[in-house]
């Protein structure tokens, strides 16, 4: 393993190898796609819903589940085309469908009048933003607050730092980036490409000095994601967010935004833009590290998520406290 991934003793706690006990559910979305869903922690605990990103799975939240499930009811699901959820065909990936997936999971796991803290990482944040736009009537009914972690709302190819070229050639970078993402995401990796990808995927997704076990987990999740799922979601993201931004007008509940200083896939400028556009921003927190702050800066992310549950009114609802 390259020295880039050298273990920083005492900085990163051992990655949880096993998730705590859980209850598994099979949730059906509006188009009948089966979504593998797991519920951790005390059955009567306050609910926290976690939505993973592109080419990840429930395991991406290992640190959060291990910590938060000691006190809260943690709900996580594999997005369509990922993990143990169904893999629809080529046309089964749209923003409307992933928003519908989230709505189905919330309806299946929350009690009739129950609201949750909902957190989305990367594509999970896009799922959450799409849900607030298409299901605005459900936002205040189902969400006390939301956390958008290392995510973006648009201009995906122009902002993502996959290719460094002069500004004058930005249109060429967009075209090359689209070809690279579609080709890299939608194929089964042959042996030679797999060797290169073992280093390329963590290099893009993580900052410097990460525990090699975290780098290995990120690559494993990428490799284990169906090529059809990767390709479908990659095309969805580049087509829907290639040159425009999602509206955040429906994001009416308290909103925490977390970005990272060395994020190559969702640069800090994206988090700052979301913070400016969010109608009910509580805080913008800028962390060191790369795109996967829930793995790289897990203690701080856990603290921030816990802080969103520390509400100061008698009914346990109200303002976030991230200080």
TrEMBL record:
Q: Which GO terms describe its molecular function?
A: peroxidase activity
Which UniProt keywords are listed?
Oxidoreductase, Peroxidase
Enzyme class, first EC level, given as a word: oxidoreductase
Q: Name the Pfam families for this protein.
A: Abhydrolase_1
Location of the AB hydrolase-1 domain: 46-296
Write down the InterPro entries for this protein, in alphabetical order: AB_hydrolase, AB_hydrolase_1, AB_hydrolase_fold
Q: Where is the signal peptide?
A: none
EC code(s) of this entry: 1.11.1.-
Under the heading SUPFAM superfamilies, the entry gives: alpha/beta-Hydrolases
Q: What is this protein called?
A: Non-heme bromoperoxidase BPO-A2
Organism expressing this protein natively: Mycobacterium simulans
The organism that produces this protein has a lineage beginning with: Bacteria, Bacillati, Actinomycetota, Actinomycetes, Mycobacteriales
Gene name per UniProt: bpoA2
């Amino acid at each position: 393993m390259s020295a880039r991934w050298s273990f920083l003793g005492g900085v990163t706690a051992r990655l949880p190898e096993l998730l705590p006990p859980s209850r598994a559910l099979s949730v059906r979305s509006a188009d009948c796609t089966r979504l593998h869903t797991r519920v951790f922690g005390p059955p009567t605990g306050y609910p926290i819903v976690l939505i993973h990103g592109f080419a990840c799975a429930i395991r991406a939240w290992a640190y959060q589940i291990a910590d938060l499930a000691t006190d809260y009811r943690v709900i996580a699901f594999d997005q369509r085309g990922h993990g143990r959820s169904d893999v629809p065909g080529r046309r089964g990936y749209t923003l409307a469908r992933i928003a519908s997936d989230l709505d189905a999971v919330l309806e299946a796991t929350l009690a009739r009048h129950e609201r949750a803290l909902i957190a989305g990482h990367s594509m999970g944040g896009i799922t959450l933003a799409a849900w607030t736009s298409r299901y605005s009537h459900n936002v205040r009914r189902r969400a006390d607050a939301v956390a958008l972690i290392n995510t973006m709302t648009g201009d995906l190819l122009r902002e993502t730092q996959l290719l460094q070229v002069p500004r004058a050639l930005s249109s060429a970078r967009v075209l090359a980036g689209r070809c690279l993402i579609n080709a890299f995401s939608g194929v089964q990796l042959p042996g030679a490409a797999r060797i290169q990808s073992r280093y390329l995927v963590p290099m893009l997704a993580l900052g410097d000095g990460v525990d090699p076990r975290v780098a290995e987990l990120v690559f494993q999740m990428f490799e284990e994601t169906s090529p059809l799922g990767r390709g479908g979601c990659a095309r969805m993201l580049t087509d829907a967010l290639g040159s425009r931004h999602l509206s955040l007008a429906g994001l009416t509940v308290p909103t925490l935004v977390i970005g990272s200083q060395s994020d190559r896939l969702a640069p800090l400028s994206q988090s700052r833009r979301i913070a400016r556009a969010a109608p009910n921003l509580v805080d913008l927190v800028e962390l060191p590290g790369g795109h996967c702050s829930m793995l790289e800066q897990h203690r701080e992310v856990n603290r921030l998520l816990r802080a969103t549950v520390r509400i100061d009114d008698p009914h346990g609802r109200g303002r976030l406290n991230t200080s």
